[in-house]
Design brief:
The chain contains 10 helices and 11 strands. The chain is α/β, with parallel strands linked by helices. Helix 1 links the parallel strand 1 and strand 2. Helix 2 crosses helix 3.
Length: 297
């Protein structure tokens, strides 16, 4: 694989630091963010505000690939207009500057929120299982809308034929330090949710795969674990929590893996050559073991 100069916006963030570490094993990486990490990072740092297009132009000069992670996260509870402004305009700035600087590929961090299903609205539920990239998107919350707009913008740039654009849609990202909080969330009695996840390490490998893959002009990919974070077989808890199953259910898929996620990752496997490595039951057991060790210390 040819070594590339990869500029990562938002590389100091929770996910960004994992992406940079993974990319730096094979490429020359630049962290374009508002502030550097507070510890050594295997990347050059360039102070960059994605809301300043001139700063983005300067950061992307000489880059082979742009990876756009910077933006306002769903969990931050920002005012609606800020999600639309920062996530949408920031993405436009990266795409425009990348095209102007002759960057060959941009990888956008989209989100599961693009589909709107994580909003758990009674009027919008999964239309098929597993959910894949052909599933209709109907977001209402501004964060999901901002990601949908960013993907549309990305496709418009790819359509010109000057730059490839790949959009990755991570599921709920679990970092080592957030596993406990995630377990508290999913294990809460009566939790009404879809129990999806991806580890930060697996997500970082997906970004590297997107950087290195060849021949994709434009595409979007859900990036998630093979399994659910619910201990009960998926079709069972789905019926209990959501009511009837959708009309379109791949029964063979859930026979092969009863704990399979409601979100599929077949497209990422086939086109990016990526596959998750996590096992949620093993993660749960390891976390419980660490708690027991601390209590017995």
């Amino acid at each position: 694989m040819e070594r590339k100069r990869v500029v990562v916006t938002g590389g100091s963030g929770r996910v960004g630091r994992h992406v940079i570490e993974c990319l730096a094993a094979a490429h020359d990486v630049v962290n374009a963010d508002l502030a550097p990490l507070g510890f050594d990072q295997p990347a050059e740092f360039v102070r960059t505000d994605v809301m300043d297009i001139d700063a983005v132009r300067a950061a992307l000069k000489g880059a082979d690939v742009a990876v756009h992670l910077a933006g306002l996260d769903y969990d931050w509870g920002c005012p609606p207009e800020q999600y639309i402004d920062v996530n949408t305009r920031g993405s436009w700035h990266v795409l425009q500057a990348a095209e102007e600087q002759g960057v060959g590929k941009t990888v956008l961090c989209s989100s599961i929120s693009i589909c709107g299903l994580q909003e758990m609205r009674p009027d919008w539920q999964p239309q098929s299982l597993p959910i894949d990239e052909t599933h209709e998107n109907r977001p209402v919350y501004p964060y999901g809308v901002s990601k949908q707009i960013a993907e549309v913008m990305g496709e418009s740039f790819a359509r010109k034929g000057k730059m490839e654009v790949i959009c990755l849609r991570p599921l709920a990202v679990i970092l080592p330090e957030t596993l406990g909080a995630y377990l508290d969330f999913v294990d809460a009695p009566g939790r009404h949710w879809l129990f999806y996840y991806v580890t930060a390490e697996d997500l970082a490998r997906a970004f590297r795969a997107a950087v290195e893959v060849q021949g994709i002009t434009f595409d979007s990919f859900y990036i998630g674990a093979d399994d659910s974070s619910h201990p009960v077989p998926t079709l069972e808890w789905f019926r209990t929590s959501m009511g009837d199953l959708p009309r379109a259910v791949d029964q063979d898929h859930y026979r092969r893996n009863p704990l399979a996620s409601v979100f599929g990752n077949a497209r990422a496997r086939a086109k990016l050559g990526w596959a998750p490595t996590s096992d949620f039951n093993a993660m749960r057991a390891a976390h419980a073991g660490k708690i027991m060790e601390r209590e017995n210390a």
